[in-house]
Write a structure and sequence with these properties.
about 1000 residues; 5-stranded antiparallel sheet; alpha/beta
Length: about 1000
């Protein structure tokens, strides 16, 4: 064991809620049992089998109120792996569940036996026919697919609120629709073809002209069984009429029985049945969508009504006017949304019954938008709207930022409301539809039913399509509260079916919580046809049992998860998974959601539990060490949960008093530390010139083993040489700004092999050319943005340096009269925001007067208008840093790059590189994993320039791509050089 390896017990929960009734039992502490683990490892390779108890626990939760711990998790890389798992399951009488994003709200992504991860290796988009079609891998998010299609002016039909995280495989498997899809733009209606693997291992591509012939040879009994069911349905006119009527409104309850009416062959029938089948009939390995026009001319309004029924009554008017989206948010939803960044704070004071409609019209051109605005004005004139708080305008707008804010509030419905639930309560998301003409009546009935059962649910939904969602919170650890929920569900389902002939699931698919009510909605005959369908396609019941079909009337009450209290920063988490696609360690160890899920399981356990010990043993590396600490999870989370901050706190907890003192001493003597670091880099550069990189790699590798990998950086060949000993000479008199060269740019030089100035020289030169000279204070040496200490959880050192830099900046800028220009985006973020909580009261007051400006923003706003571009490169690819996302500066990077290059490309898969100062040297595997997809895009073609705005991120991208990244300001200097 390394000398300074922290003890796992330092992360032991300080207060434990357990033992909880749903805790992982002690017999599961050793993880996957034998011979299951060995057999699958031999079949697939050990690297594809996750077996530790921590692996099983982190995969046991999705966005639903359920929790089932699998026996093993398999990371499938291709169809061969999927077929091998299915064959194994048949031979061993095991069950298989496929999981992609885990954003499902009804437990569809959970299994109790073999769980197969089909997200990690299943991403990719191929745009076809000029954008009219798209071939998409099932692990691709809706957001990523639409980003690729936007260049062609096209978009997918399904648009679920979870588009940032949900994957297309799950969207199709659940027939998820969203705000605008309704019954005409959903997966069922817009799928051109799909490829799937049947439970028996047969692969079917519905676009193949020979597909039916091949399926008949491979699965004759399946083909016969499907055609028998088709003939039986078609022989019953009443049943045919019933099926057609059920899909006139949104409906995802049970299997799509209209597939038997719309398909003429077994393959065509299966193509329809797969949509909404929730992984119970096969694995969808590829989809081809017919895309839709991306109408870019928008006009939108957020309109406030005195009550839910009043708002619902206005919906048909906007439908008739041609609105593409009419979204409803009740008072509970609106008030909870104040936790979402950008939502007006005065919404917290909205009256209880206030309800809003988000109405949007989309047109292909200006004339179409103007026509919609006239129709909207006519509707508005007849409405009785209210403006109970100052921020309410009740007016249509074209402003993209305002419209984006409206949608951000709407899409945050589940997470925002869930974040305000009482501590320790479990969240249930229900989803139903009624004929749109009866929406107002259904709203009144729902409010009355909630009151009868003691619930005060939040309600929102796609009102244009008669589809509403509501959220309930109850304590799953209390039998009486569970029974209250059960009584409500029985009454709600009967109300929806018997009074409104509605759909119990409109777009979230049947799932565990509605499976027991399937027959209530469809009746015995249609329900039995669904059971027959399952038996015909999956006669051995291998795939996802009990998820869509379950005869147990209390199945929806089984597996409800408790939500034990964890650290305050993470406690509001509802485990939705929106954070996961942004997380650099997503494909290496754990995600923000999984870090919280694991922490909650620790709280469920009692002291001394072997399960708790197993979780703690793995948590140090899997959760704490491999967190980049970039906090992009905070940006993706609608309620701003910063799991990165929690991991930094855990790093602090693991420090010994000696480590904290050493870090504080380094901060106090940073001038000497900085000089030593620069000399060390220079010496290393000379050594590698003489003997290559292997000696330093071996020396640092040995030191890491002896001391601790998280303390000693690994030498990387991409590390540049030392910076110049002296910074450029500048004058304070006449300066337009104070230039603060970050310590990373005072220690490390620019890209090797590229002639030209250093970054400080370039910024000084280009500022002077624009008539905006900058001044570098002579005493910048020995100061830092404090991120070095902040990112590692060294609290004392962080306080020392945070207060030092603010006091120094105050003096340099003459009390904030000049802006402070910082030449590394992460350092800009550090000084502008991250130091604030660690300042003394006096220095916090000084900080409030400072103007912290990133150098790229300085160049875009202050320099570009006064510069002459003399030469450009043909193409440039950009790596926007995560700090840019926090500061909303990416547009400025694009602007500067656009002045220097005729073509500017930001990869669709661009994300945090996870180099994170020195974390990419402490854990090179983290950066390798985080950059893999972006690097694949970058290396797929040639670019003339590879540009970013942070030296360490540039090193990380150098290592990932084999291309030389450098600051966009160096390119700007070259482009404007006389």
């Amino acid at each position: 064991m390394p000398l300074l390896e922290p003890k796992p017990g330092t992360l032991r929960p300080r207060t434990v809620s357990g033992p909880a009734p749903d805790r992982v039992p002690e017999r599961r502490a050793t993880g996957t049992p034998e011979p299951l683990r060995t057999e699958l490892s031999e079949l697939l390779g050990a690297e594809k089998v996750l077996w530790k108890v921590s692996d099983l626990v982190r995969y046991a939760s999705d966005a639903s109120p359920y929790r089932f711990v699998p026996q093993v998790v398999v990371i499938a890389e291709d169809i061969d792996d999927v077929s091998a798992v299915l064959s194994y399951a048949h031979g061993r009488q095991r069950e298989v569940v496929f999981r992609a994003a885990g954003t499902s709200l009804n437990g569809q992504a959970q299994g109790e036996d073999v769980l197969v991860d089909v997200r990690r290796h299943w991403a990719g988009v191929e745009v076809l026919e000029g954008g009219r079609r798209a071939r998409i891998q099932p692990g691709t998010t809706v957001l990523r697919a639409n980003a690729a299609l936007a260049r062609y002016g096209r978009v997918l039909g399904p648009d679920p609120a979870s588009a940032i995280a949900c994957t297309l495989g799950g969207v199709v498997a659940n027939n998820a629709s969203g705000m605008t899809a309704g019954t005409t733009r959903n997966s069922y209606r817009t799928l051109a073809s799909l490829t799937f693997v049947l439970p028996g291992g047969t692969v079917v591509d519905t676009a193949d002209p020979l597909a039916d012939e091949e399926l008949a040879r491979a699965e004759p009994a399946l083909c016969q069984g499907l055609m028998d069911i088709k003939r039986e349905i078609e022989a019953d006119p009443g049943l045919v009429a019933r099926i057609r009527a059920k899909y006139e409104i949104k409906n995802t309850t049970g299997y799509r029985l209209d597939a038997y009416l719309d398909g003429n062959t077994p393959v065509e029938i299966l193509r329809g049945l797969m949509v909404g089948s929730e992984g119970t009939l096969g694995f969808i390995s590829e989809v081809v969508f017919d895309t839709l026009p991306l109408d870019r001319e928008l006009t939108s309004a957020l309109l406030f009504f005195p009550s839910l029924p009043a708002a619902a009554a206005a919906v048909p008017l906007f439908n008739e006017a041609g609105a593409l989206a009419v979204e409803l948010m009740d008072g509970n939803t609106l008030r909870a949304s104040v936790s979402v960044a950008g939502v007006p704070a005065d919404w917290a004071g909205l009256p209880k019954d206030t309800t809003a409609l988000l109405v949007e019209f989309r047109a292909p051109d200006e004339a179409g938008r103007a026509a919609y605005e006239r129709r909207a004005a006519e509707v508005l004139a007849g409405l009785e709207l209210v403006a109970p708080v100052a921020s309410v305008t009740n007016a249509f707008t074209r402003d993209p930022r305002t419209i984006s804010g409206y949608w951000k509030a709407r899409k945050a419905f589940v997470t925002a409301v869930g974040g305000t639930r009482a501590c320790g309560t479990t969240l249930i998301t229900e989803d139903f539809a009624v004929p749109p003409s009866r929406l107002a009546e259904a709203c009144e009935a729902l409010l009355e039913l909630q009151a009868q059962h003691g619930f005060d649910a939040a309600v929102a939904g796609h009102a244009a399509h008669g589809n509403l969602h509501f959220l309930l919170a109850f304590d799953a650890a209390e039998p009486a509260d569970v029974q209250r929920y059960a009584a409500f569900m029985d009454a709600f389902c009967r109300l929806t079916v018997e009074r409104f002939d509605g759909s119990l699931k409109a777009e979230h698919s049947t799932g565990r919580n509605m499976a027991p009510f399937l027959e209530l909605e469809w009746g015995p005959k249609a329900t039995e046809l669904m059971w027959r369908t399952k038996r015909v396609v999956d006669p051995d019941g291998v795939l996802a049992p009990r998820i869509l079909l379950d005869r147990d009337p209390r199945a929806h009450l089984r597996g409800l998860k408790t939500i034990p209290r964890v650290e305050a920063v993470a406690d509001p988490c509802i485990e939705c998974g929106f954070c996961e696609p942004t997380c650099p360690s997503e494909d290496l160890t754990t995600t923000p959601r999984q870090r919280i899920v694991l922490r909650r399981e620790m709280m469920r356990q009692q002291p001394g539990s072997p399960v708790l010990d197993g979780l703690l043993d793995a948590y140090g590396y899997d959760a704490v060490d491999t967190c980049a600490g970039d906090s992009t999870c905070k940006l993706a989370c609608p309620v701003g949960i910063d799991t990165g901050a929690l991991m930094k706190d855990f790093r602090h907890r693991r420090h010994s008093p000696r480590e904290e003192r050493a870090a504080e001493l380094a901060a106090r003597r940073f001038r000497a530390v900085e000089a030593s670091a620069r000399l060390a880099v220079a010496a290393a550069d000379q050594i590698t010139d003489l003997v290559g990189d292997r000696l330093l790699e071996a020396l640092t590798g040995a030191a890491r083993k002896a001391v601790r990998p998280d303390l000693v950086p690994q030498w990387l060949p991409q590390i540049p040489g030392a910076a110049a000993r002296k910074l450029p000479a500048t004058r304070r008199v006449g300066a337009s700004a104070v230039y603060y060269p970050a310590c990373v740019n005072r220690i490390f030089g620019g890209p090797g092999g590229q002639p030209g100035p250093s970054l400080p020289q370039a910024l000084v030169a280009v500022s002077a050319r624009a008539g905006k000279p900058v001044w570098i204070p002579r005493d910048v040496t020995g100061t830092c943005c404090a991120t070095i200490w902040h990112s590692k959880g060294y609290d004392a050192g962080n306080r020392v340096m945070a207060n030092r830099i603010v006091a120094a900046a105050w003096g340099w800028t003459a009390g904030g009269r000049l802006p402070l220009v910082v030449d590394a985006e992460s350092c800009t973020l550090g000084i502008a925001q991250e130091v604030v909580p660690h300042l003394t009261a006096d220095n916090r007051a000084l900080h409030a007067e400072l103007r912290i400006v990133d150098s790229v923003v300085w160049a875009a706003q202050e320099l570009l208008p006064h510069l002459e571009i003399r030469r450009t490169v043909g193409s440039a690819v950009l790596h926007p840093t995560c700090s840019m996302r926090h500061l909303d500066d990416e547009a400025h990077l694009r602007a500067v790059a656009g002045a220097c290059a005729r073509e500017v490309v930001v990869p669709d898969d661009a994300g945090c590189c996870a180099f994170a100062g020195d974390r990419g040297m402490l854990h090179p595997e983290l950066t390798a994993s985080a950059t893999a997809r972006e690097a694949a895009e970058v290396t797929a073609r040639q670019f003339d320039a590879h540009l970013s705005a942070n030296r360490m991120c540039e090193i990380g991208m150098d290592r990932a791509t084999g291309r030389s990244y450098y600051s966009v300001l160096l390119e700007l200097e070259r482009a404007t050089r006389p």
